[in-house]
C-alpha cells in the first residue's frame, strides 16, 4: 500500500478544504462512494490518493479539497465497507424467530463475515495491515472494534448487566476474528466448525447462568 506524502498524505496546508456546505457534502459523499467501490474491488495494495482520484473520475487536488489526505480517505472508505458488512451481518443475526439463542445468532452472522466477496477480503486485509504496521495503521483495528462491539452487545440478553454484555461481546469478537484469520489462511472448515462447537457451548453456558459479579481485568 502506498500513501506517501507526494500523494497528499501530508503537507496539504496549501489546499483549500471543503467548508461543509450541503453541495460540498453531497459531492464529498459521491467521491467517497466511488473510492469505496474501487477499494472493495481492488483492495488495499497500492492504494494511493492518485489511484483514488482515477477511481472517482477527478484529480487528487479535488480529493484534497474534501478529505485531509490519503489516510483520511482510506479511513472513511474502510468505515463505509465495515458499515455495509455490519448491517448485513446484523440483519442475519436479528432475523428469524425471536427466541433464537445468542449462539444461533452468532452462527447466522458467520456466512456474512466469511464470504469471498472482494469487499470482505479487503476488510480482513485491513486488520492484517493494522498488525503489520501498528504505528501507522492501528486505527484500522481499533475502529473495527468500536463499530462491531455495540452490535454484538445488542445481541446479548436484555437482562444482563452492561458489564456482562461487554465481556461476552468481547469474547465473541475475538473468537470470530480468530476464525476469520484461520479461514483466510487455511480454509480449514472442519477446524472452524469444531471451534464453533466450543463457542456455542460457552455461549449456552452464559445464557443458562444467572447474573454473576464482574471479573476483575488482568493487571499484567
Automatic annotation (TrEMBL):
One of its GO terms (molecular function) is DNA binding. Residues 25-85 form the HTH tetR-type domain. Gene3D superfamilies: Tetracycline Repressor, domain 2. InterPro entries: Homeodomain-like_sf (IPR009057), HTH_TetR (IPR001647). It comes from the Bacteria. Keywords: DNA-binding. Residues 48-67 bind DNA. Residues 1-26 are annotated as: Disordered. This is TetR/AcrR family transcriptional regulator. The lineage of its organism: Bacteria, Bacillati, Actinomycetota, Actinomycetes, Streptosporangiales.
Amino acid at each position: 500500500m502506498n500513501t506517501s506524502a507526494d500523494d497528499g498524505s501530508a503537507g496539504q496546508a496549501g489546499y483549500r478544504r471543503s467548508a461543509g456546505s450541503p453541495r460540498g457534502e453531497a459531492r464529498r459523499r459521491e467521491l467517497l462512494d466511488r473510492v469505496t467501490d474501487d477499494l472493495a474491488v481492488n483492495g488495499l495494495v497500492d492504494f494511493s490518493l492518485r489511484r483514488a482520484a482515477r477511481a472517482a473520475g477527478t484529480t487528487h487536488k479535488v480529493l484534497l479539497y474534501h478529505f485531509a489526505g490519503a489516510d483520511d480517505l482510506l479511513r472513511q472508505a474502510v468505515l463505509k465497507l465495515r458499515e455495509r458488512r455490519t448491517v448485513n451481518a446484523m440483519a442475519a443475526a436479528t432475523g428469524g424467530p425471536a427466541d433464537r439463542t445468542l449462539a444461533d445468532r452468532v452462527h447466522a452472522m458467520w456466512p456474512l463475515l466469511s464470504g469471498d466477496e472482494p469487499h470482505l477480503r479487503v476488510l480482513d486485509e485491513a486488520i492484517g495491515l493494522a498488525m503489520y504496521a501498528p504505528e501507522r495503521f492501528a486505527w484500522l483495528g481499533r475502529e473495527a472494534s468500536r463499530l462491531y462491539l455495540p452490535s454484538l452487545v445488542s445481541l446479548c440478553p436484555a437482562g444482563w448487566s452492561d458489564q456482562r454484555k461487554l465481556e461476552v461481546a468481547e469474547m465473541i469478537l475475538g473468537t470470530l476474528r480468530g476464525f476469520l484469520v484461520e479461514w483466510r489462511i487455511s480454509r480449514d472448515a472442519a477446524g472452524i466448525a469444531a471451534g464453533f462447537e466450543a463457542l456455542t457451548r460457552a455461549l449456552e453456558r452464559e445464557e443458562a447462568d444467572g447474573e454473576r459479579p464482574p471479573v476483575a481485568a488482568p493487571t499484567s
